[in-house]
Amino acid sequence: MTLLGLQAAVVRANLDHTDWREADSVTGWVVAALVVAAAVGGAGWLTGRRTPAGGSAAPQGPTMEIPAGQRAVWLSRTSNAWLLAAAAVTGVMAMAALAAAVGGLMGSEAALLAGPFALASVLVLGCASVQARVSAKGLEVSFGPQGWPTRRWAVDAIESAHVETRTPAQVGGWGYRLSGLGTTVMLRGGECLVIRTDKGKTFAVSVDDAERGAALLNSLNAPHSR
Question: Where are its TM segments located (predicted)?
Answer without folding.
Answer: 25-46, 81-104, 110-130
